[in-house]
């Protein structure tokens, strides 16, 4: 077994584990800790990690794009402090994967919202390969770190910039995702778009919170297509509380909006919509829209459109299906880690 295979072997084994019923208990435990993390969404997230990140061929192809990792035993090991988000299940896994596969020591400050799930993944890795236990540390303070990767809001990013400025760092801020519809989408494609909007209750930065549609576009078919999802959202008390609150605000303020009983749509120039609301805006040409979105590129994580027709977009339904090469905020985490 060569160096590259040794490095990826524990993660390939973890991927196989995540595709079995061995994850059933942790899906319910994670839900008991954070009710936004339903067992169904936790299962989806873990199986997506297994399929998109932890296949042997995929891992090898990814690491071979970084010559230092493909040839060297390890880079010079350093302590990497990672402040993890917790907005969707196991959202910090990609950073953990990058740190460990680059040969560094992980100092992880976990989000209280996603603590159980990340601890589970760390424990499984340690059991698969006990040598990894020496390179995984959960910490509340990251003073000993040599470099930092931090994910948070725009406000916390300013705090991170201040405290981490003297050492190498990646600091991520608020981002959201947008969709572009052209009016020719099939019901299957609109269903996939509904997944981009509603998966994980819309809490992820890759969830679509704003959609651009042609002048005169009607949302009837979209609403009819996603109607079968109603029970999932109406019966989730945290989501539905947000829906009822936002609906009350719109009704009291007499703000025009569409409503199907669990997802409202309101015209707005803003990119970020509240939970249970999808903002929309019309466009007259793809060229004009491309220019508008280019001006807001630093606020957009990804764009989805029918078969990816819109420039630099993904196909509908792929917003929450990132690959190993899809780095948050477009910053290559692995290139950063191998340059230290």
Provide an overview of this structure.
- The chain is an alpha/beta fold.
- The protein has two domains: 3-174, Aldehyde Dehydrogenase, Chain A, domain 1 (3-Layer(aba) Sandwich); 176-315, Aldehyde Dehydrogenase, Chain A, domain 2.
- The chain contains 14 helices and twelve strands.
- Strand 1, helix 6 (93-101) and strand 2 (105-109) form a beta-alpha-beta unit.
- Helix 1 packs across helix 4 (56-63), helix 1 crosses helix 7 (115-128) and helix 2 (24-33) packs across helix 3 (39-53).
- The two termini are 27 Å apart.
- The mean pLDDT is 94.
Instruction: Tell me the CATH topology of the largest domain.
Output: Aldehyde Dehydrogenase, Chain A, domain 1
- Please bin the fraction of helical residues: 40-55%
The strand order across the widest sheet is 8-9-10-7-6-11-12
Continuous helix count: 14
Shape, principal axes of CA atoms: globular
Distance between the termini: 27 Å
Tally the beta strands: 12
CATH superfamily of the largest domain, by name, is Aldehyde Dehydrogenase, Chain A, domain 1
Query: Mean pLDDT across all residues, rounded?
Result: 94
**Total discrete domains:** 2
| CATH class designation of the largest domain | Alpha Beta
Helix and strand element order: HHHHHEHEHEEHEEHEHHHEEEHEEH
Q: What CATH architecture label of the largest domain applies?
A: 3-Layer(aba) Sandwich
- Strand percentage lies at 15-25%
Computed structural class: alpha/beta
Largest sheet: 7 strands, mixed
Cα-based radius of gyration, to the nearest Å: 21 Å
Residue stretches low in confidence (pLDDT < 50, at least 5 long) are none
Keywords: NADP
GO biological process, one term: bioluminescence
InterPro entries: CoA_reduct_LuxC
GO molecular function: acyl-CoA dehydrogenase activity
């Amino acid at each position: 077994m060569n160096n590259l295979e040794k490095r990826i072997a524990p993660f390939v084994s973890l991927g196989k584990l995540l595709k079995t019923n061995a994850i059933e208990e942790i899906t319910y435990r994670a839900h008991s800790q954070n009710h936004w993390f339903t067992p169904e969404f936790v299962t989806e997230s873990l199986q997506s990690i297994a399929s998109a990140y932890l296949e042997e061929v995929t891992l090898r192809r990814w690491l071979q794009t970084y010559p230092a990792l493909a040839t060297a035993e390890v880079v010079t090991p350093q302590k990497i402090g990672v402040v993890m988000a917790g907005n969707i299940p196991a959202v910090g896994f990609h950073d953990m994967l990058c740190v460990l596969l680059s040969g560094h020591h992980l100092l992880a400050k976990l989000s209280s919202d996603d603590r159980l799930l990340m601890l589970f993944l760390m424990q499984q890795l340690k059991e698969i390969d006990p040598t990894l236990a020496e390179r995984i540390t959960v910490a509340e303070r990251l003073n000993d770190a040599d470099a930092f990767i931090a994910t948070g809001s725009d406000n916390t990013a300013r705090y991170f910039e201040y405290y981490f400025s003297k050492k190498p760092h990646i600091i991520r801020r608020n981002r959201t995702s947008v969709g572009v519809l052209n009016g020719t989408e099939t019901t299957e494609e609109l269903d996939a778009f509904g997944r981009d909007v509603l998966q994980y209750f819309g809490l992820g930065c890759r969830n679509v919170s704003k959609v651009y549609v042609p002048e005169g576009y009607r949302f009837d078919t979209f609403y009819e297509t996603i109607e079968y999802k109603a029970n999932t959202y109406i019966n989730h008390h945290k989501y539905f509380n947000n829906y009822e609150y936002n609906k009350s605000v719109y009704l009291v303020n007499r703000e025009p909006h569409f409503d199907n009983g669990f997802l409202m749509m309101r015209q707005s120039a803003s990119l970020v919509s509240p939970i249970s609301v999808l903002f929309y805006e019309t466009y007259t040409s793809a060229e004009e829209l491309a220019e508008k979105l280019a001006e807001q590129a630093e606020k957009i994580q990804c764009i989805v459109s029918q078969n990816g027709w819109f420039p630099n977009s993904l196909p509908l339904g792929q917003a929450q299906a990132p690959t190993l090469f899809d780095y948050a905020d477009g910053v290559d985490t692995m290139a950063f880690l191998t340059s230290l």
